[in-house]
Amino acid sequence: MAASRLSPVTRRRLANFRANRRGFWSFWIFLVLFIGSLGAEFIANDKPLLIRYDNALYWPVFNAYPETTFGGEFETETDYRDPFVRELIEGKGWIVWAPVRYSYRTINYNLPVPAPAPPSAENWLGTDDQGRDVVARLIYGFRISVLFGLVLTAFSSVIGVMAGAVQGYFGGLTDLLFQRFIEIWQGLPTLFLLIILASVVTPTFWWLLGLLLLFSWTALVHVVRAEFLRARNLDYVRAAKALGASDVTIMVRHVLPNAMVATLTFMPFILNGSITTLTALDFLGFGLPPGSPSLGELLAQGKANLQAPWLGLTAFFVLAIMLSLLIFIGEAVRDAFDPRKTIAQLSTATPGEPAAAVARKEAAE
Amino acid sequence: MSQNPDLLSVRGLQVEFRSAHGAMKAVKGVSFDISKGETVALVGESGSGKSVTALSILQLLPYPMAHHPAGSIRFGDTELIRAEERTLRGVRGNRIAMIFQEPMTSLNPLHSIERQINETLFLHKGLSRAAARARTLELLRLVGLPDPEKRLTAYPHELSGGQRQRVMIAMALANEPDLLIADEPTTALDVTIQAQILQLLKDLQQRFGMALLLITHDLGVVRKMADRVCVMNQGEIVEQAKVADLFVRPQHPYTRKLLSAEPRGNPLTPPDNAAEVMAADRLKVHFPIKKGLMRRTVDHVRAVDGVSVTVRQGHTVGVVGESGSGKTTLGLALLRLHASEGAIRFDGTDIQGWQAKRLRPLRRQMQVVFQDPYGSLSPRLSVGQIIGEGLGIHDLGDRADRDAQVAKALEEVGLDPSSRHRYPHEFSGGQRQRIAIARALVLKPKFVVLDEPTSALDMSVQAQIVDLLRDIQARHNLAYLFISHDLRVVRALSSHVMVMKDGKVVEQGPTQRIFEEPREAYTRALLAAALNLEAMTSPEVRT
């Protein structure tokens, strides 16, 4: 039922998306990785997932229990990695651990060699130069990168689409002034400004997002603007005006769907750019606060510790694979929205295509 | 070349388009011959496969997506199907030339006229630059382009549509081809220019003894130009006959249907003293021409220049004129969709200068139907949403009531009410135009601007739409402003006619009077060109 309710255009696009096998599989791989990393606390954590102690169940992932709960001496939160505590608990029950028994900030004090330690059975990808497990930091770092990218992309798209829509729809002086402003704004040296701003305020996730948003919203403006400029003279927009529809109604209902094609096509690439920018800032040390799990910081560690190649290589491969997956997805999305991809399917007129082309197609039938 | 008396002989030609969703046969076994110096017309409605047939002669289809499961095309002694690229290049533009419908897109916008024509001369004749230039000039003179010396360096956008089509013809004639294929050569042109171009083609054909394959949907053009006609329908030739025979004794039912498809009937005769619905007094729409560093306004394009018009209840005022005459702008200005000067009275109130908010309640009483049924419907909304949009804006009725009104409007325009859940692209051009009419009707307007509602449609569909419009007008006592360049349609629908040229009214009056005793020279030229395809030399007529 759900499939039959999709418009034929949407169905054709889905088919096109699926037809790009590489992008289609990239999409699923990325989705699995992303959803997996959303549950990072269940995959890599220094607290157990579940404890059975004295016939009661405890969920250390969700709740903080003082050590006294398990017969310990301190009122502070239990350090489950402490062998003494472990013995206490296992004496009266059992513990279920996450697959990786390290969180992103857990320091392994029992390293056989000075940090950074090479890969071993305990630390699958070794530790960084502060003795923290690389796998754990990767999982959390991937999550924060993608989340940051997604939020930044969403915000820049919303602002970009609104700005582009207003410019394109009203045109004239509004358009002229806005365009000149954007040209000047884009001329600002973004990275340097970010570095300066980052040294004034202590960068947090949201601060960084705000700072990057200041400059990233312009990416979509000209695409959306062009769509609106074209569409505002279309007959169905005129017809809507003749019906008495207000400007906002026309923009949202009639023109925006056209602009969404261009927007969605661009989005994976903007996401890619956002992730790269965050990584670059982290690499330079102007990014997320110290201690945060971040791919850029791991790269910087790799550069500082050339004798420990697992750091640099891991960060490189994770970044390269993640960005490639996103590019492949982006290509598939582009295919999905490309009207020329279905030139063989003559009967379906593609929206946004000039009527003459459709008429010609129909003449060819 | 002796065994084949015909210049071109097409036998059992089939064309199939392959796609992801299976093959589609566009041409299903078509056979015809063209002998030297003969004019053969391929007639059919859109989708009949006539253009595909013509394109396969020069093997210009998108191969390998298109292919020929069977058939042969022999030109002289050469088989053209699956011929080598080298052979084809020798034929194309040299022995068989082609002109297309849309002269703007068929010429390269970045090359001057001289360069475009020279190209064929260099390719096939290997002429020197000076010789080619002389020949180009000769050709331009031949096709009657005014001031050919000055035009050599002109670019396509500097020429009018008719002049561009003349350049296209000059290019096609450059190598004195044996066969000229003209694919809807005049469809995109104004009627007076259409008449001139047809006359030119006829003259040139006689002069060079060329064969002409004319592809058209217009039976008037066929009657005027062709010796023999092939009527195509759904990929097959249903009837082949001499022109004289075909028009007198059509054999196939489809041919008969096509011949009877001309808009017929007479306009309604409402009382002359009916209430005035829409009137404009010396309406002006001027576009400033800005020049110089300070963008000072140096002049105006007078799109509509002091036009007064009155439309009464139940009446239809036909606005006739060629492209650029300001007729569409006039329609939009009356609806206040375009800024203008001068009084606009709707129902006795002057609505000129009203704010959009104040105007909104009136919007439901004045509606518009546009020319292009593909562009005028939002492709992403279902038919029900498109028609119901106005009801939502004006807050008419609740959900169920709106749905009922949409269904009723669809029924009124002759569509199945259950089709309201489908999307525009699932409908044919004629059906889409019915949807557009339903969108206007559902608001129960008093006044409707019909901006060339039939021009983009096939002949038989045109007649149906005209009948539908007349029917609806009679039922609801509507006032129409009917904008068209097609005088036959105007005659079938309008009680009054207004002839416009360059933003001014040349002549206006009752339809019968205008058609039977036109007073102005321009009106006479327009009528001759539109109804008899005759080119009249009149100072007012452009080239």
Could you give a short description of this structure?
Chain A: It is a multi-pass membrane protein. Chain A: InterPro entries: MetI-like, MetI-like_sf. Chain A is mainly alpha-helical and 365 residues long.
What do these coordinates show?
By secondary structure, chain A is mainly alpha-helical. Helix content of chain A is 63%, strand content 3%. Chain A is built from 15 helices and 3 strands. Chain A has a 3-stranded antiparallel β-sheet with strand order 2-1-3, covered by helices on one side. Among the domains of chain B are: 1-95 and 217-259, Rossmann fold (3-Layer(aba) Sandwich), CATH 3.40.50.300; 307-336 and 373-532, P-loop containing nucleotide triphosphate hydrolases (Rossmann fold, 3-Layer(aba) Sandwich), CATH 3.40.50.300. Helices cover 36% and strands 26% of the residues of chain B. Chain B is built from 20 helices and 21 strands. In chain B, the strands form 4 sheets. Chain B has a 6-stranded mixed β-sheet, sandwiched between helices. The radius of gyration of chain B is 26 Å and the shape is globular. Chain B: It comes from Azospirillum doebereinerae. Chain B: InterPro entries: AAA+_ATPase, ABC_transp_ATP-bind, ABC_transporter-like_ATP-bd, ABC_transporter-like_CS, Oligopep_ABC_C, P-loop_NTPase. Chain B: It is a peripheral membrane protein.
